[in-house]
Structures are given as structure tokens and as C-alpha cells.
């Protein structure tokens, strides 16, 4: 009797995991087909665009680039310089230091000849906690704001938002280095539909291994066989294989904080960035969609396949766990907060395609993953599953995930053409190797993140920079 | 049971392995092809260049063998390249002949068919762009028909770009007719219209009184490109438009034209009900820098809208030192922003330095300067004072201290500290 009930339980869990896995694979493969089509469409649009007209026209919509910074003395200079180097007719750069205790502001003051000034701004979404405001003697379009430490990136972004003057804002992280045409490429579809597109994201790559000087990328050397190379693969897979395709269904639910363009009036309409969550990026995208649906607005939030910015990824396991723990917490917080979107017909594709992905893969996926491995191990030990069958199931899982990675990689390379054959083959190999070590690290981070979410931890837990990038 | 479920897994694994292997092989082949296709492309473009030179040099015949071959064999991308090369040639009779040769070739029929029919998007866009590159007015009707039948923004954009390349009167009219129709972004249409070398003044004037305010708005923008009396008169009339957006655009364009007759009209718009009209009137006045405008702009420092105030301040700064006498009464203004602006303007135009030097170094005591300085400090000029004090010795700081103590001025403690103790504190 006891044997029968354990067996039955084991069997039920096994079938659930199998169904979950099949659904997930079908979902990913479907998204890959859509990603291919979407990438082709965006590529055609990109090739057909006359960028010279956009660059010389006074009708090109100006953009405010917002950079929140907290103790970023090692990366801030390259970030700001890359923002100032943009090929765009009219833009401003606003750096808001969240009470940095290192030399962040001092470095900026030295490099850009900052002088203290007083700028009138309206506090629409921020609090009155500004310590000093500086204008650059070298670049009239650079403003540096020093505020008291508030601990939340969202609050810093809200300050920057209040200082911004233009209709569109582009928020980037202080460790991000922009390509010269990052804003131009991202604004391209927006210039075609400024009345409809309220948010746009684009592919963000891992900077580790690159040589950067004065905000310019001098050498693109992709890290091979390191922790950051697995992250490069992950970024490509999640942007191309997931967000790009979901964008076609107007259900892309995360414009990442490293690089994202938003229409300012829309951001103000939804109340700016929220400090109630661990991070701001995924939440603001969920809230934006929620607002669009509830108010029946014809707005769009899109994702582009162009690699426009590079950010530094953690190069130590401890730091990677910290980062992914934070991501897991914010995903759980957001999914929980916006649970009313799930399978809600009012939300269309978001309710049936976008939001369920975050619930079943990003939030609960870790439990299915652990349960399936445990059940299979348990079944193998107890003799329900033969060892060769266990290995077969494992092989299917690895192969399916690898196909997702390889197709995403192919789409990425078709669009960007920045990988050599050697890079491609190395990344293809890594797509199998990530199951032996890297995925387990991520699983640990996700479990810890879920525990911290249950505990109600909302701290940022900033990771230390190891600087694999040459500045 | 589990054996039953998993017994076919071997087949799945094999299939997936083959698929993954296929993907990796495709990756390698694609990379190899990428390298060779660049070489082929380079060779083809060299052939096209050679054929083009051959045609230009052979002054007699209507075509050359090499050009005929290019026209027959070139793919759409190569044809577009050929037309770009022709565009860059000097305007000679041979260039016109070449355009005609392509226009009457069989290839063009094929291109028109692709542009009109349901073809793959890339091909269709390229065909439309080729039609534009031919710069022939007779093709405008065909392009217009594509706009009428298509709702795809990519196709419409390609047609607008093609029309922009044709640059004829009919093409400009067709593009302008798209303004305000929601077929495509007005700012993108306008950006294309801006690049057209063919003057669009007459086309703009025709639509100056269009029923649609969006069209009038863009017309007001275009008119700013013409330093012409007719454009000026049209804009003057548009300042009275019912739509505030049109009035604002007219202000901006008048500022761009720079005809001083506009100043009086712009002064009237400083009292407009809509803040952005007032804003653009101020900005436009900043282009003329007529001394008479200073007095008219000063009340805008107290405007209800902060952006108008901010721009009024920036515009007044542009006037330079001649704005200083007008700022003295503003230092005692009831509005804090106006007072602060006056301080900032006096600082940035160098007037504050002059006033301070006069007070410190002139032997004859001047009551007017003294009072002005006190007003200046009271209107929060102490931030400026702080930076100025850095450069002073103890004796001068002492003088400032006495002056401030005498008047019992309200200021920040750290400024007082700096006055007493200098930078070391």
C-alpha cells in the first residue's frame, strides 16, 4: 500500500514535470520562429532607413539620457563619455549620483569641468533631496545632480526624470557603455510612430573582455570559457529568443534597466518609477502594459534586435548569485503584484503569452526544474527509472535548451555580424556546457532569491566590480 | 509504466542531435558564405562601375553591351547601387540618356510589377526605392497608387522616400497630401520634405489655410526655411491662427527668418493664453535681440509656467550687459524666481562683477551702487559672492563683512564663515 502511494506520487510529479517541459519547449520553439520573423522585419526597416535624414533633421525628437549612479568611480567616466559621444541631433545627459561616497562626482567634476549651479525643475515624481547641481563647462548638454542617498535606483531615476527636458528619456546604468548610434537606432521606429511607441528596448551585451577608452569600444573581444561568456549567451537568448518575439505580440514585459527608452509624458502619467520593488525595470514595464490595457490606449512597447549597449557582468560566482538573487526577487514581486494579468482575456496576448512566461518559467520554473531532477534521481535510485532512461531525459533537456540558444545565436549573428567563426563555435559549445555548473549556480541564486522574496527582502545588494574590461 | 513512456526517447534524442548538428553546420556554412558573398559583391560593384564608365565614355550609342548585361543580370540591390552611382555623376546629356535607357528597359516593367504586387517585403521596398531613384515624374502616379492601397508603414515609408528622391512638383504635392492623414508620422514626412532641394514654398502657401490644423502646423514649420517676404506675410497671418500649435510654430519660424518686422507681432503673443505660444514667442525674440523686447520679456520671469520663466531667463541672458539696468528693479521683485533670475542674469552677463569692483575699488562712494549691491545680495546673490570671495585677501573680505553686518543681511551661515575666515575654513 505504502509502496503504491509513493509510486503514485512519484508518477504524478513525473508526468507534471514532463508536461511542463513539453509546454516550455513548444513555447520556446514557437517564440524562436516569431523571433526570426521579427528580426527579419526589423532588419529590413533598419536597412531601409535613411539615417542621414534623421541625423540632420530638426524634426528628430530630442532625447534625455539619464544615468543613475551610486559609487561608480571606475565605470562612470566611460559611461558618460559614451553617452556624450552619441550621433544624435539633440540630446542631454543627466547624471544623478545617489549620495556616492567614493570619487564618482569628483571624477566627473575634474573631467567635465563642472561648476555648481541652480536649475529650476518641477518635482513631479521625485522628493526634495537634492544636495547640489552642476553644469559642465565643456559640454552644455551635461548636468550632474548630487542627491542624498536614498538606496533605491527608482528614486534616483525619478530625480533624473524631473530634471529631463525632452519628450523621450533613455535610462542607462552607470556601468553601461553605449554604441555611438545607440539612441539613433532605438529612436528609429519611434520616429515613425511617436504617437504610439511609448517604450523601446534593445539588445544589451556583456562588456567583459572588451577594451574601452574614452567611452569608445576599441576592441570587441568576447570572453571565452568564463562566467561572463555564459552570461553573454543568456543575454542573447533572453533578448532574441524571448523579448524580441514577445514584442511582436505587444506582450514584452521587460525593458531592462541597462538600456531603455521611454516617452516621458507616459512615464509621468503612470507615476514614474516605483521604489516599492527591489528593481525598477521589469515593474515599470508591467505597470506600463497594465496602464495601457486599463485605459485602452493604442500604445506600444517594443524590443529591437540591435546590440546598442554593453554592460559589465559579474565575473565571480558570489557576485553572480547576488545579481540573480535580486533579479529573482524582483520577478517574484512583480508577478505577484500584477497577478491579475495572468490568463485575463482583457489583457490579450499579455495574459496568455507574456505574463504566464514570467510566472511559469521565471518565477516557478526553478521549482519544476528542481522537482524534475529530484524525481528522476529518486526514480533512478529506487529503480523506477533505468539509468539510461534518466540520461536520455537529461540529454533531451540539454538538446532542447541548446537549440533555443543556438537559434538565438544565429539570429544575433545574422543581425550584428560581430562574432567570428571561432566565437560562434565556442558559444555553440558553451550552450551545452552551461548545464554542467553554470545552470546550477543560477538555480542556487534563484532559490535564494525566492527565499528572500518570501522574507520580504528588498535591498539592492550591489555586487563588486571585478573589471575584466580594460578601461 | 516509465519504461513505456521513455522507450521512444532514443528517437527523440537522435532527432534533436541531428537538428543541433545541422544548426552548427549551417552556422559554419553561413560564416563561410558571408566571406565569399562580400568578395562577390565587391566584384559585381566593380563590374557595374566599369559598365557605367563604358557607357558614359561611349558617346554615340544609346546603350553599351556591358550596360545591357548589367541591366539584365543585376539584382535589385545592385540596380539600386547603379542608380546611386548615376545620381552622383555630373549632369550631362549622357546621364539623361542613361536614365531613359533604364526607364524604357524591360527590367523596369518587372520592377514596377514587384512594387505593385504582393512580393516579399524586402524586394518590394527595394523596387519602390529604385522607382524613386529613377527621378521620373511619370512614376509618381504609380507610387501614389501604392500608398492608396497599402497600410503597411514600411511600404508607405519607402514610397515617401522614393517620392522625396523624385523631387518633382507632383511628388512634393503627393508627400504633402499625406500630412495629417495618419498614414505615417508627420515628423518623418516633414524630415523628408526638408531634404528636398526643389523649393516647396508654393506648395506650403497652397496649404496655409488647410482645414486640418496639423497641416497648417507643418506648413508654418516649412515656411521658416524661406527668407522671403511672401513667407513672412503668410507667417504673420498664421500668428492669428485659432490653433495654438500653429501660432507657436509660426513664432518659431519667424524667429528663424529673422525679419525685424516680426518683433511687434511677437510682443503681442507674449500675452497669449497658451504657455507654449508664449514660450515660442520668447524664444523667437531671442533671435532678434531687439532692446525694445527686454522690457516686454521681463514680466515673463513671473509667468505661471516654469518653462516659460526658464526660457525668459535664458533669452534675457542673451542680451548681454545691456540687460543690466533693466534687472535692477527685478532684484526687489515680489516673485522669488524673478529675483533669482535677475541675480543669475547679472552674474552671467558680467554686470555683478562690474558692480562689485566699483564698490570695492572706486574711491568715491556711490550710494546707488551700494544699494544695488545690497539688493543683489538680498536677492540671493550670495552664491556668487561665495565664489568671488575665494579670490580675495583678508582685508577685502573684512570690508564685505562690515558691509553685510551693517545691513544685517540674511544669508547662509557657510557664506558668512567664508567671509570671516576665507577658504581655509
Q: How would you characterize the overall build of this protein?
A:
The complex is a heterodimer of chains A (471) and B (425). Chain A is α/β, with parallel strands linked by helices and 471 residues long. Helix content of chain A is 53%, strand content 16%. In chain A, the strands form 2 sheets. Chain A has a 10-stranded mixed beta sheet, sandwiched between helices. A two-stranded antiparallel ribbon of chain A has the order 9-10. Chain A is globular. Among the domains of chain B are: 201-318, Alpha Horseshoe (Leucine-rich Repeat Variant); 320-425. Helices cover 73% and strands 0% of the residues of chain B. Chain B has helices at 2-6, 9-57, 65-73, 76-87, 93-103, 106-116, 121-133, 140-149, 153-166, 169-177, 186-195, 201-206, 213-223, 229-238, 244-257, 262-269, 275-288, 291-297, 306-318, 324-327, 336-348, 351-361, 367-389, 394-407, 413-421. The model of chain B has no long low-confidence stretch (mean pLDDT 84). Chains A and B meet through helix 1, helix 2, helix 13 and helix 14 of A and helix 1, helix 2, helix 7, helix 9 and helix 11 of B.
Summary keywords:
heterodimer; A: 471 residues; alpha/beta; ten-stranded mixed beta sheet; two-stranded antiparallel ribbon; 15 helices; 16% strand; globular; B: 425 residues; mainly alpha
